[in-house]
């Protein structure tokens, strides 16, 4: 049984005088523990699709099932890592990472200990009493990842989480996020404009065509690349071949 199933997803935005179809006829299955990416030109509906998968937006047509149940009933099983970390500046790092557990009524001595241990594994064991403004951008994103994983979500939504970081920090975080998600056997969906990021981190890359967005092509990442860390994967000969193939497909989708 597939972990996540999208069936015939279509979505149209209506105003008083017009309508815009953002997505049309999107169907796909995601296995548990799989890491997939959505790529596509601006305006192809990637963010709309992510919102629908998360149960935040009801599609005009179609359905999303998570573990064979409507995603609307599984919102607590979904975690987010976004471009901005959205840490509360007036709360300490410890208070920030425990917030989700507290809101969900799941903050116990055991869950707190597990979360603080994860913070330590992220090389952030000495920042519990610090405030977000005292940390670098990369450190803040690591804190955001800990906060997301603390509630033990079954599905992770990654919406361009590294795009605001410098290149060196971005590469380090790609490795860290990838290894962490693999160790926890998490299922993840990444929305990105970065072809290299998608190839280095994913099992499959879904390329969406623009206006309205629909699945244009699926790229399967070879095991040789998937078995490597994202940083090392970028040096593999097959990486450049895939990068060029996806680049050419993207070019073909751009309006002339």
TrEMBL record:
One of its GO terms (molecular function) is ATP binding. CDD domains: ABC_NrtD_SsuB_transporters. Pfam families: ABC_tran. InterPro entries: AAA+_ATPase (IPR003593), ABC_transporter-like_ATP-bd (IPR003439), ABC_transporter-like_CS (IPR017871), ABC_transporter_ATP-bind (IPR050166), P-loop_NTPase (IPR027417). Keywords: ATP-binding, Nucleotide-binding, Transport. Gene3D superfamilies: P-loop containing nucleotide triphosphate hydrolases (3.40.50.300). Residues 4-235 form the ABC transporter domain. This is NitT/TauT family transport system ATP-binding protein. It comes from Mesobacillus foraminis.
């Amino acid at each position: 049984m597939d972990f996540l199933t999208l069936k015939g997803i279509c979505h149209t935005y209506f105003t008083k005088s017009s309508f815009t179809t953002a997505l049309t006829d999107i169907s796909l299955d995601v296995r548990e523990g799989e890491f997939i990416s959505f790529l596509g030109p601006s305006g192809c509906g990637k963010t709309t699709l992510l919102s629908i998968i998360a149960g935040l937006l009801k599609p005009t047509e179609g359905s999303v099932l998570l573990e064979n149940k409507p995603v609307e009933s599984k919102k607590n099983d979904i975690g987010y890592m976004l471009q901005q970390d959205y840490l509360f500046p007036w709360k300490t790092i410890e208070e920030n990472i425990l917030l989700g557990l507290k809101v969900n009524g799941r903050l116990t001595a055991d869950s707190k200990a597990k979360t603080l241990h994860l913070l330590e594994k992220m090389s952030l064991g000495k920042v519990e009493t610090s405030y977000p403004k005292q940390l670098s951008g990369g450190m803040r994103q690591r804190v955001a990842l800990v906060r997301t994983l603390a509630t033990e979500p079954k599905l992770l939504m990654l919406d361009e989480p590294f795009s605001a970081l410098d290149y060196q920090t971005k590469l380090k975080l790609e490795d860290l996020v990838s290894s962490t998600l693999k160790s926890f056997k998490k299922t993840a969906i990444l929305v990105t404009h970065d072809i290299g990021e998608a190839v280095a981190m994913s099992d499959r890359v879904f390329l969406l065509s623009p206006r309205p967005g629909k699945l244009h092509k699926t790229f399967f990442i070879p095991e040789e690349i998937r078995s490597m860390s994202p940083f090392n994967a970028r040096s593999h000969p097959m990486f450049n071949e895939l990068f060029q193939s996806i680049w050419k497909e993207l070019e073909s989708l751009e309006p002339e």
